[in-house]
Design a protein that fits this description.
Helices cover 17% and strands 33% of the residues. The longest helix has 12 residues. This is DUF177 domain-containing protein. It comes from Devosia aurantiaca.
Length: 183
């Protein structure tokens, strides 16, 4: 197992040892774990990473429901200044065993897969599910893809963002200090 495959924190659930009433999985990441999460997400820092999941058995697999709360700092996409963000995401995911070869559809037969279904299950191989990957994925999807400070824009920095495309010769004339409209 490589360093990349090693989970950042322990959130492994064994399906064969899961009580019929389910169990709770609580994660409160330590400082070292939060630093590893920030590095994995390619963000400046993670100040808080807390998750509470209820895991119950479901059709030879499991269902994980709960909430992830995180406080992170990313670099602004405009000025690269630190931008703090709070992420609160609800989690509801189903993990089912992958179909066995005996249950696999016949070659050439049609298989209907509804990709719009919200309850599309994740397939698992083996007796355990690592929920750390689910939590990291949930955080990644909850992050603002274009973080900016309030009121920050390219126009405020004095950068031209005009709709009309300027010719390379007009740009060169402007760099030389000439008026491109008089040429």
């Amino acid at each position: 197992m490589s360093q990349r495959d090693t989970p950042i924190f322990d959130a492994i659930v064994r399906i064969d040892r899961l009580p019929s009433g389910g169990r709770s999985v609580d994660v409160d990441a330590s400082e070292a774990e939060r630093a590893a999460i920030a590095e994995a997400m390619n963000i400046l820092s993670v100040e808080r990473f807390v998750a509470h999941l209820t895991v119950v058995p479901l059709r030879s697999g499991l269902r994980a429901q709960g909430k992830l709360e995180a406080a992170v700092t990313q670099a602004s996409t405009v000025s690269f200044e630190p931008v703090t963000e709070t992420v609160v995401e609800e989690i509801d995911r189903v993990f089912l065993p992958a179909p066995r070869e005996a249950q696999a559809p016949a070659p050439g037969s049609e298989v209907f897969v509804d990709l719009e279904d919200d309850d599309f299950p994740d397939h698992i191989d083996g007796p355990e599910v690592d929920l750390s990957a689910l939590l990291l994925e949930t955080l990644a999807l909850g992050l603002d893809p274009y973080p900016r400070l309030p009121g920050e824009s390219l126009d405020a920095l004095g950068l031209r963002t005009g709709d009309a495309e300027e010719s390379p010769f007009a740009q060169l004339a402007r760099l030389k200090g000439e008026d491109p409209d008089k040429s």
